[in-house]
Amino acid sequence: MTVSEPQPPLAPLRPSVRFMLSHPAHFMALGFGAGLAPKAPGTVGTLWAWLAYLVLQQWLNQRHMGLLIAASTVVGWWACTTTARHMRVADPGSIVWDEVVAFWLVLWLAMPMGLWGQVVAFGLFRFFDAAKPGPVGWADSLFKGFGWRGGWGILWDDFVAAFCTLLVIALWRF
Hints:
Oligomer: single chain
Structural class: mainly alpha
Number of helices: 8
Strand content: under 5%
Shape: globular
Number of strands: 0
Order of helices and strands: HHHHHHHH
């Protein structure tokens, strides 16, 4: 029996179309391709969420949209957990399902509003998600690592960013 030398840790995987299509969790977590954007995948994922919401609201009433968001959160938790583990990165920027579900929540709770209101909601959400001020930064630091805890962490800071966005919108409307 020989003693082998320690193996170096596996390098993180870069997402590709092939990776995305190799597992249903990858397809979902990468926002059906939005997360493959070479620059600002979170912004691209949020734009995709906005467009998808506008299309979905034609067929889904408020209750059904809420149920879709709830189901997308649970299934997205699995997808984000699985994809992060397969990519060997705790919170990869290419995972954008967190932006999708969180921005759907913003639109679901803030609609109806015109185009400019939606643009403001988009800008506020992107600010809170990217800059991570105050409570968003705190939320981002809570759940780190791999496994179910880390998968929840991928989603959690975006939900806090959505809450901050909704709070600003509520104060603006008040």
